[in-house]
Amino acid sequence: MADPANKPSPDKAAQGSDSNPDTLYASRKKLQVRSTSGVFTNWRWAMVWLTQILYYGLPWLTWNDRQAVLFHLTERKFYIFGWVFWPQDVFYLAILLIISAYALFFFTAIAGRLWCGYTCPQTVYTEIFMWIEEKIEGDHNKRRKLDAAPMDARKFMLRGAKFGAWAIFSLWTGFTLVAYFSPVEELLQALTTFGFGPWETFWILFYAGFTYVFAGLLREQVCKYMCPYARFQGVMFDPDTLVVTYDEFRGEPRGTRKKGVDPKTVGKGDCIDCGICVQVCPTGIDIRQGLQYECIGCGACIDACDQVMDKMSYPRGLIRYSTENALKKRWGMKEILVHVARPRTLIYGGLLVAICIAMVVGLATRTDLRVDILRDRATLAREVEGGLIENVYRLQVINMIEEARNVTISVSGLDGIHLDSDGLAALPAATTESVTVQVRVPYDAAEPGVHQIVFEVVVDDDPSVVVREGTTFIIPR
Known about the structure:
Elements: H1 10-14, H2 39-57, E1 62-63, E2 66-67, E3 69-72, E4 77-80, E5 83-85, H3 90-111, H4 114-119, H5 121-137, H6 140-148, H7 153-179, H8 184-193, H9 198-218, H10 220-226, H11 229-232, E6 243-246, H12 248-251, H13 276-279, H14 300-312, E7 319-322, H15 324-329, H16 333-338, H17 343-364, E8 369-375, E9 382-384, E10 388-399, E11 405-412, E12 418-419, E13 424-427, E14 432-442, E15 449-459, E16 462-475
Antiparallel strand pairs: 1-2, 3-4, 4-5, 6-7, 8-10, 9-10, 10-14, 11-13, 11-15, 12-14, 15-16
Helix pairs in contact: 2-5, 3-17, 5-7, 5-9, 7-9
Transmembrane segments: 38-58, 78-105, 163-181, 201-218, 346-365
GO molecular function: 4 iron, 4 sulfur cluster binding; metal ion binding
Keywords: 4Fe-4S, Electron transport, Iron, Iron-sulfur, Membrane, Metal-binding, Transmembrane, Transmembrane helix, Transport
């Protein structure tokens, strides 16, 4: 992998890098990225639309007369459509994180930085902010001229409109984030009076500020200097990983020529050295210098180069998704696809499938009733009327569905063991109910000491839903 710090390209220097050998760090000049179109650009915008429709749309969906997706921190419940998750379900969050990690490893081993190029929030929001910028200030040439122009009324108006549009979009983004943790209806009511709570205000402004700064101001610097994924991606690549590549064998020696000229007749390769692949790169690199850690695999240079090849009547694919081995051995797509199924991807894929299946099975078999038993510490064991020994317990019964239900509590494990009450309890929808029960046994039912007993909680209208939890019963000496 080429390191641009050791092998800077002339195109990067042309975009404003400080080449003074006496300076330790290169000065950054704002990139004015040229827009392009093509297959990969369409895919990138499709992912922008998909991710943002999900992000901005989910808080407005309703389910069972409440918000469909709500991580309600106050109630300590996570609502995801028909599921209600409790703090005790943190296991599922751990599994989800493991699935995300293995999915990242799997897709990176196959096709490089797909996440970075198409679905990373930094990429997605940068695309949106650049689209806003282009609509207000014009294409890359007009924006470059505007940057160089002195401040006047026109420039002030354009910059004000752009910054204002960015700010409104960022605040909407921050508001939407908080809507996942506070009911959106309450937020809308607070919005009319600006009566947000302190934490809601903080997170709206915090996330809006980071969106504005990262996507509007820092842009490629986040990918190049701040994102850890750019640094450790190299250990997940191998010679059979699909990455954006420049076919040096076909393209060199590069040089200008007239349209339609056969490159062999002028002793040149297919690359006409137009530099458009650099102009459309969101991180400002020259892919012709080899794979660099700044490359996010977005494919913008592929679309741009293919358009140039079309105009020159040359075959497409001078810049394309390929592998290191494919370039060296001149493989076609068939050989590349054959090498996708290699030990690394098979292991990652197998583990990913196994964990996903375990997650699905766990959710499908997840009980919607949960019982935790706590012994009453104030009254461990005592003798009551009739020569009976009594232990007091507090049952925390969690009704995990959004329907009220009645349950019957019983106990077993010792001769003559019974509850002092009828064992009936009403559970409101999606709540935790504390039920105190007195368990009694005859004094001579067992030897003094600690004995194992079992509580059984059965849903009255669905006997198939039953929870059994063990605990201990103490008979004093």
